[in-house]
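Exam revision sheet. Question 4 asks you to relate a sequence to its structure. Input first:
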Amino acid sequence: MLVKGEAQVDYGQILVESEAWSEFDPYRAFAGQEGVGLCGGGTKGQLLVLTGLRIGGVGFTVELHDDRPAADETWEEIVEVPFRPVSAETKLRQWNGRASWEPGLEERDYRVRYCATAMDDGRGKDVREDDEPQTGDRYLLQFWPASQEPARLLKQTSRTAASWHRVATSPVG
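Answer key, structure tokens:
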């Protein structure tokens, strides 16, 4: 387990990057994903990971596996996307810059599974102050070495996830 605990989100986002973002464009993050939102792997060397809560701390876990882990169907939202770091210094970075973690990814192809629960609760809360309890939304990001495959939507139950999947279907301008 690489990360387990609370991660701070701003604008409902956490970033995985193996090089600095030159231009941030959430629509391009989902380019080529055919209606798969929540985890945008359309920008080389970067992932945009979305949460229900807009600002504050959420339960967040990151795992690195040797092989494809079994999917846990208790998660309400599940997507998979391809990812390839473009440098040896990949970081999971909170949008506000408070903290970052180095997951130890090599420059090779990975499959990423992003799972979420209670996204609508987080979106309904919108902003969580540090002294308030977590809203219940929590997230899991899993990496494992794999050849490149198209992004896939495996499970979707919330209005929040449905909204982001529609954004990923919209044409990039």
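Marking note for examiners. The radius of gyration is 15 Å.
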